[in-house]
Design goal:
Elements lengths: L30 E6 L6 H9 L2 E8 L12 H22 L2 E6 L10 H12 L4 E7 L12 H18 L3 E4 L37 H16 L6 E4 L6 H7 L3 E5 L3 H4 L3 H11 L4 E4 L12 H11 L4 H16 L4
Parallel strand pairs: 1-2, 2-3, 3-4, 4-5, 5-6, 6-7, 7-8
Helix pairs in contact: 2-3, 3-4, 4-5, 8-9, 9-10
The structure holds zinc ion.
Length: 333
Amino acid sequence: MPPTHPTKRPTDAAHLDDHPELPTELLNLPWIDVHNHAHTLSWDDRERYALSGCESMVMVASGYHWTPYKPVRAEDIRYLWDDAINRRAAIERNHFFEANLGLGIHTGVRIENPDEALEAMADYCALEEVVAIGETGVTPTQHVSSWDVDEQRAIVQAQMELAADHDLPVLLHTPNTSSDSGRSYRSEIGTPGYEKNPGLGQEPVIDAENPALEAAKIDVEAARDAGLDEERVVASHADGNNTEYLMAETDCYLSYTIGHSWLIGVTAADVADAIDEYGPERIMVDTDCANVLRTDPFALKRAILELYRYGIDEAAIRQVVLENPRDVFDIGQ
Ligand SMILES: [Zn+2]
């Protein structure tokens, strides 16, 4: 203890010999969320994005959760697109971050006349605010009404062809394998924090040992058949089940969803592991925040700090939360 230390008896403060370098620049690092449904959130939740440094986002106007009727018809999908287009500029004016759109045909529930939605989609792709197609991608099980896997694949591939034509990236809803808490909830009650009618899940349409991984493989084949470069594909919901395949056998980007870790089990630690193993070049982080789920608009900001604590350097953090999204989606500054 230095003789001049003023405390009455030694405290921890007397033992602080080396000061760690603290990454203060991370406090003001802008970031981009490439997958959320912020137009379905509250004003206060969107303000949380602004307060924590969000520079730009992709608000995804696709998902059966928000269609009133199931099975879904093309006009239900178009309503979701039009609602987001209607409100987008007001969201920007309110919060100052750049609010871009992703439009797509989700396969979580069967659509009765998907070709009509596809036909309309080309004109939507030409809009400046549309920066991605998605979220879409083959899913192993549907809600309410199941959808044959070949029909799903055709719809996914058709969207990828549109993306190739319009030079847009595709955001995949890569099926993730949920964390297993060891217990399941009462089937008539369902999962608290996930607004979904329990018991309406259909039998799987993919007969494989690992249906979630198989779905990702079908999506990648569809991209190849559509003539869409794999580096224009962003596999959201990357997880331990699909990372090795996507990294080793494709050129796709992987986006780790960390806005509802309580449900799918993916955290900043998984992102740090992936950066350690594969480098930051093809990695992003997204929140997937939406009103139907218990989600956290601060998740990405928290992950920035957490990645540093886990030993990731500032340049790699900047690349995964800002530079990769800017490059792939051509958004932000
Ligand atoms: Zn989503």
